[in-house]
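Example S7 (structure tokens).
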């Protein structure tokens, strides 16, 4: 008699279908937004001398917002090849502000290219008309051209930007850019992006800005997707050194901070939060001079604040959020889990006779005997006392899978095996097996989605001494 191998249906897909629909809608409209708030905190380090007593500050440093910028864009697919793009922005600096609105219509002309018409208007720069073209020249080379006419009280200001790019290898792209009109320049850059690093080197010759740039970013292979970066930019208007880091703090949020040290720009701290497709940017200008104290506080301050917030706010919030999601998932799948449990218990009862014969055959040849096997969530010594192990006994169904003194499990969730079910939905699970082979005890623990092959010499329990 063969072991029962009934495949049971998966959990309820209602919530997953809703999430997929929301994700599909977001991908179709592709909303993007940016909020930038510039903060002038130079009074923290560059205080006026005491002779300026007519300026009443109350003894506290004056920190003020000196500029703001808000922009938003959304895409609306019209047909399979046409897309309308609507965007707008508002900005203010030192009491003077303005805004603009743009409308673009993009058409995919072929598999190799697309074109875009853009119309815009604003209270500061006047009407705008632009044309953008993209074309793949070869499988490894493409070109982008952007032509624009800006109408203002001083006349028509034309502009042209052309970018030629080529894939130099699997991870490296080279760019050549020519810009004519407003701030004419020629720029060449090489960008190398791999799984563990991102490297950029660029050189620009232009009016009025000419500079050389080198930038490196290291990507750590951890769950938080931590990245550290540094860059050096030198040109006619000074030199800027920048270093910083960014880290994923939740499923859709990435927090980053960078310190910018330049001559004659001074010292600035830049804090950025990416939340899904929204970006919040806070450049904080600390001092116009190169003060060691400003560099120290700009470097250490964000680290102290982050670790304090991570321990006191972020981790408790994520833990509570995960518990709510798990509880909601358990409630929605409770009936299904109960049904699967009953099916698994029925399958185990049907396996008993087959398992008895398998054990007798394995004992006769001193083969593979599953002494004990558990599947689910295990609690180690470091876990909180309030946590409880959620495991089920899978000794019988696992012994039923033994063939010729071997047991092979593929890279898939063990919950789908005959006689198994998920005892802790949404939580990390493992399979722990105590088995005997050639009269010697062995033990192994494997993650839920990890492949497992036994027996192995490395699983042997050392009984010496």
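Recovered sequence:
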């Amino acid at each position: 008699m063969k072991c029962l191998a009934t495949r049971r249906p998966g959990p309820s897909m209602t919530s997953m279908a809703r999430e997929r629909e929301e994700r599909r809608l977001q991908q179709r409209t592709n909303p993007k937004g940016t909020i930038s708030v510039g903060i002038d905190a130079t009074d923290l380090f560059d205080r006026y001398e005491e002779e300026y007593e007519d300026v009443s500050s109350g003894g506290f440093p004056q920190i003020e917002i000196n500029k703001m910028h808000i922009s938003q864009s959304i895409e609306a697919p019209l047909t399979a090849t046409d897309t309308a793009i609507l965007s707008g922005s508002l900005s203010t600096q030192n009491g003077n502000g303005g805004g603009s609105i743009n409308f673009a219509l993009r058409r995919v002309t072929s598999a190799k290219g697309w074109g875009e018409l853009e119309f815009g208007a604003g209270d500061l720069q006047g009407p705008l008309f632009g044309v953008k073209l993209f074309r793949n020249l070869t499988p490894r080379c493409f070109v982008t051209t952007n032509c624009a006419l800006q109408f203002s009280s001083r006349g028509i200001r034309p502009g042209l930007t052309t970018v030629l790019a080529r894939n130099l290898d699997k991870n490296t792209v080279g760019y050549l850019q020519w810009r004519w009109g407003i701030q004419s320049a020629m720029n060449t850059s090489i960008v190398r992006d791999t799984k563990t690093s991102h490297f950029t080197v660029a050189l620009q010759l232009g009016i009025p800005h000419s500079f050389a740039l080198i930038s490196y970013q290291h990507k750590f292979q951890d769950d938080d997707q931590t990245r550290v970066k540094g860059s050096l930019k030198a040109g006619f208007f000074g030199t800027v050194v920048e270093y910083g880091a960014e880290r994923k703090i939740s499923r859709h949020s990435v927090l980053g901070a960078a310190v910018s040290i330049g001559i004659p720009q001074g010292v600035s701290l830049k804090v950025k939060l990416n939340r899904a497709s929204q970006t919040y940017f806070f450049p904080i200008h600390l001092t116009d001079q190169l003060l060691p104290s400003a560099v120290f506080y700009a470097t250490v301050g964000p680290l102290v604040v982050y670790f304090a917030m991570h321990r006191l706010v972020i981790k408790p919030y994520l833990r509570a959020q995960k518990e709510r999601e798990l509880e909601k998932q358990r409630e929605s799948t409770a009936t299904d889990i109960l049904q699967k449990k009953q099916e698994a218990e029925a399958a185990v009862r049907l396996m008993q006779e087959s398992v008895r014969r398998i054990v007798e055959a394995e004992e006769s040849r001193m083969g593979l005997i599953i002494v004990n096997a558990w599947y689910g969530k295990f609690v180690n010594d470091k876990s909180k006392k309030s946590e409880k192990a959620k495991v089920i006994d899978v000794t019988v169904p696992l012994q039923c899978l033994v063939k010729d003194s071997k047991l092979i499990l593929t890279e898939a969730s063990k919950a789908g095996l005959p006689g198994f079910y998920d005892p802790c939905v949404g939580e990390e699970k493992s399979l722990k097996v105590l088995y005997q082979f050639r009269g010697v005890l062995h033990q192994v623990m494997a993650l839920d989605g990890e492949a497992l092959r036994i027996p192995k010499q490395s699983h042997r329990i050392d009984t010496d001494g």
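Notes on this example. DSSP finds three helices and 23 strands in the chain.
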